[in-house]
Design a protein that fits this description.
By secondary structure, the chain is of the alpha+beta class. 23% of the residues lie in helices and 20% in strands. It is built from four helices and six strands, in the order ααβαβββββα. Strands 1-2-3-6-5-4 form a six-stranded antiparallel beta sheet. It is elongated, with a radius of gyration of 19 Å. The C terminus is likely disordered.
Length: 189
């Protein structure tokens, strides 16, 4: 009789271990998205165009320079696009911590070229390293990455053909001010 609870515990542990191993390899669906959101505190979003990304955000976008996507306000969601993403970008994928500090972004360039990763406001800071991962993120981008500092957070950007890959660990761009504590709480929702 005493073996039954042990067998149940072992079976439960086996199921949980199998689920933990298989979950990152499953295609996105409401179940895996919910688990990523609640357990791993990560959100994944996919948009057909940059315009779709802004209409789905809860906050109204700020005006943007010609040829560039709308900048998300500091209190915007973790899935908001940075201001330097061209407005005609397509096939946008974003994976972000719910708090908004760490993010991966992939998009395909349209007719508007990416006017190169730039850090004109100061010397780029050393980032700690990419803490998120996604199945759509390619291997070996480190040597191609260049700093981009035209947004609140400093990104590392690699361009491969028409595909752009960018990540941040939440390091602020040189000269940028940290978002207000209320903005951080709003981003986590």
């Amino acid at each position: 009789m005493k073996r039954r609870p042990l067998a149940i515990a072992a079976a439960t542990a086996g199921v949980l271990a199998t689920a933990a191993f298989a979950l990152p390899h499953l295609p996105p669906n409401p179940v895996t998205d919910s688990i990523n959101d609640q357990v791993f505190q990560e959100k994944s979003r996919r948009y057909a165009t940059a315009a779709d990304a802004h209409t789905r955000n809860a906050h109204a976008p700020a005006p943007a320079p010609a040829g560039q996507a709308h900048a998300a306000p500091a209190s915007g969601s973790a899935a908001a696009l940075p201001s330097w993403v061209p407005k005609d970008a397509t096939d946008i994928r974003i994976r972000a911590r719910r708090t908004g500090e760490a993010r991966l972004i992939r998009f395909t360039l349209g007719a508007t070229p990416l006017n190169g990763p730039q850090c004109t406001t100061g010397v780029p800071k050393r980032l700690h390293g990419r803490v998120l991962d996604a199945r759509w993120w390619p291997r070996g981008t480190r040597a191609e990455e260049r700093p981009e500092c035209r947004d609140v957070h400093q990104y590392q950007v690699a361009v491969r053909g028409k595909r752009v890959y960018a990540w941040t660990d939440g390091t602020l761009s040189p000269g940028a001010k940290a978002p207000a504590p209320a903005a951080v709480g709003a981003a986590a929702r």
